[in-house]
Write a structure and sequence with these properties.
By secondary structure, the protein is mostly helical. The chain has one domain: Rna Polymerase Sigma Factor, Chain: A, CATH 1.10.1740.10. 72% of the residues lie in helices and 0% in strands. It is built from 6 helices and no strands. Helix 2 runs antiparallel to helix 3, helix 2 crosses helix 4 and helix 3 packs across helix 4. The chain starts with 7 loop residues before the first helix and ends in a 10-residue tail after the last helix. 17% of the residues are buried.
Length: 124
């Protein structure tokens, strides 16, 4: 049996219920917005696995924050969380970026240049 499409008034009702702590209402909101959130994550990350992780982190963060939702456009609020999670993930990945040990040993100057230290490392 097919379900009826989710209308804006259904979404508003689910948002109010989710803010009040109704987990089923929150799950309906996740189902409604999961494709949009994933697609936004995919545009940010360019990687399906990273996008999936960022989307999951988005919905966990939104679940924790929804009791404080002040009203307004739920989709815009959710997409702001999505954007922040993707940026957080990007910055975390950039901090963890490492080069293989053998590359650093064999060619130390080139490994510094590849790691983005060209301005601080000068060849003799």
């Amino acid at each position: 049996m097919a379900t009826a499409p989710h209308t804006p008034s259904d979404e508003e009702r689910d948002v109010r219920a989710a803010v009040a702590g109704d987990r089923a209402a929150y799950e309906r909101l996740v189902a409604l917005h999961q494709d949009g959130v994933f697609n936004l994550c995919l545009r940010f990350t360019g990687d399906f696995d990273a996008a999936d992780d960022a989307a999951q982190e988005t919905f966990i963060a939104a679940l924790r924050a929804i009791p404080h939702f002040q009203g307004g456009n739920f989709r815009a609020w959710l997409f702001r969380i999505t954007t922040n999670k993707c940026r957080d993930g990007y910055h975390a990945t950039a901090r963890r970026r490492q080069l293989p040990l053998e590359e650093e040993i064999d060619h130390p100057a080139e490994s510094f240049i590849a790691a983005g230290f060209a301005q601080t490392f000068r060849r003799p």
